[in-house]
Specification:
Blueprint (H helix, E strand, L loop, with lengths): L8 H13 L4 H8 L3 H20 L5 H6 L10 H35 L4
Helix pairs in contact: 1-3
């Protein structure tokens, strides 16, 4: 199992420039720095999509915290707010379904038991 590392923005930028120069291939750059090709391709895709700001963004753990029912510290966009509210409502529906199932099970078991 590999250890998840966090690289600085300057380091990522340096590697992307090396990839763009084309002196070394992706495989060689990956071996040189000990980084998998999939990580290099992910960095390039982020950079092409949103520039340095997108490359600098670290979004690890956001979804997990939302699924645990915790409110993210900074909800920046309306879409994120709606996604958060949607997850909370889905969790509430699941809780109510379990409660309903439990209550119906108890009601049925009481009807089956005959008074003595």
């Amino acid at each position: 199992m590999s250890k998840q590392r966090k690289y600085s923005l300057e380091f990522k930028e340096q590697i992307l420039k090396e990839m763009q120069d084309g002196e070394l291939g992706q495989d060689a750059i990956g071996k040189k720095y000990g980084i998998s090709i999939s990580v290099l391709l992910r960095w390039r895709k982020k950079y092409e999509h949103g520039g340095l700001s997108e490359l600098a963004a670290d979004r690890r753990g956001k979804t997990k915290s939302m699924l645990r029912g915790r409110k993210p510290k900074n909800i920046s966009s309306e879409l994120e707010k709606l996604r958060y509210k949607n997850v909370k409502l889905q969790m509430e529906v699941l809780r109510l379904k379990k409660l309903d199932e439990y209550l119906r099970g108890n009601a049925i078991s009481k009807r089956i038991q005959k008074p003595k």
